[in-house]
Write a structure and sequence with these properties.
It is built from 19 helices and twelve strands. The protein has about 500 residues and is α+β, with helices and mostly antiparallel strands. It has a five-stranded mixed sheet with strand order 1-2-8-5-3. The protein has a three-stranded antiparallel sheet with strand order 4-12-9. Strands 6-7 form a two-stranded antiparallel sheet. Strand 1 and strand 2 form a beta hairpin. Helix 10 packs across helix 12 and helix 13 crosses helix 19. The longest helix is centred in the first third of the chain and has 39 residues. Its EC number is 1.14.19.41. This is sterol 22-desaturase. Keywords: Heme, Iron, Membrane, Metal-binding, Monooxygenase, Oxidoreductase, Transmembrane, Transmembrane helix.
Length: about 500
Amino acid sequence: MAADSLLSGLLDIRAAAVPFLVAAVAFYFLVEQLSYHRKKGPLPGPPLVVPFLGSVAPMIRDPTAFWDAQAARAKRSGAGLAADFLVGRFIVFIRDSELSQRVFANVRPDAFHLIGHPFGKKLFGDHNLIYMFGEDHKDLRRRIAPNFSPRALSTYAALQQRVILAHLRRWLDADCEGGAFPIRVPCRDMNLETSQTVFAGPYLSEEARRRFAEDYNLFNVGLMAMPVDLPGFAFRRARQGVARLVRTLGECARESKARMRAGGEPECLVDFWMQDTLREIEEAKAAGRPPPAHTDDEEIGGFVFDFLFAAQDASTSSLCWAVSALDSHPEVLARVRAEVAAAWSPESGEPITAEKIQGMRYTQAVAREVVRHRPPATLVPHIAGEAFQLTEWYTVPKGAIVFPSVYESSFQGFPDAEAFDPERFFCESRREDVAFKRNFLAFGAGPHQCLGQRYALNHLVLFMALFVSVVDFRRERTPGCDDPVYMPTIVPKDGCAVHLKQRCAKFPSF
């Protein structure tokens, strides 16, 4: 009887708890909806949001469709803005170029903070250039600038060409088996080796490069995964991979300091950086001051990882779109081939010099049009550190994540913006790069504008110059093959499948 009474009591408690739990869930749902609508104000957006998760499932399932829907809402409303909700965070999508410019221009503690990814601080770690503000940020950018001087870029160009040619040789050997050859993953592998060679040069052993590639792949997977920071989840593996990558790059900085202190000549980006860093450390020591900020080895490793992240997937995207565009526009391909042939021959046995790269004005215009027409990093997430009045009628609430759309800006202002037209950056009478500069946001704007944009464009120019000179190619075109998909930057849906054949009589070797 006692056991029956106890069981009956437990059942009564459970029965009484059910209405309470239902009421609690309903109250949470109501509070969340009210909070969302208060923040949304007049912006277009879903009328109701899934508790806590919001629209994260459709975003992960089909990022292209999700962000296209945000852009369509913003355009239909005429506001240039749209609202939504992701994993407990209110978000604002920005389509209008001038509003995006306002965000880029107001990166400071009491306005917007650049985060690079909705959960970037957890993923990238603390030593990251994008999270810095004010004079500290300006000072670090000043010290990084020599890494992209003409002298440094000339050193990198020779390294880039050797890696590109080695990979093109592998692509041709692979294509000998017949069938279309999707180049997205091979481009990513080529860019990873290029970044390793240009940024860390002789300081990465073959084993370190192998582990580096594994950890970077974990990072890439984690970028697109649910942000669950628990053992066994892709996000946790990505975070751990980034920590190992930063330690590895910090060790490269330490070895470079030793080599530069011994009088070595710079062979890679970290050498150019450490050469100037050692001078500043010695000057501080002589003056009785502590070492300058941001000269710790592992902290430098974190900054070098920033460059790697910025260069890797964005460049993969641009190379794929360049190949697709050249195949789609044979007249552009013919002009690029003619310009390159007038300056360099595969049989020369020499790399393309920095001077010759600068002389390839039409090929450079093609590179800029590739980046405009298909900007790799389509969105640049920021978080509102404080409430910010973005327009006369809308204030972004504190804590909201804002997504300025670089992609949408690229199709505003420019005449016939949907067309792939390098002449807009080549023809002196048009000068659309000047006339519509505020719409060309592929490299950002304001205090956090990309420091390495010249390096990125040089890499694209070099790849196109070498590719069209040593390879005959034909795109395998299927329905929807050029639809953009997020991987995490945008790439052709089919991975840019091409048929390849050697074009030059003698493959370059230098």
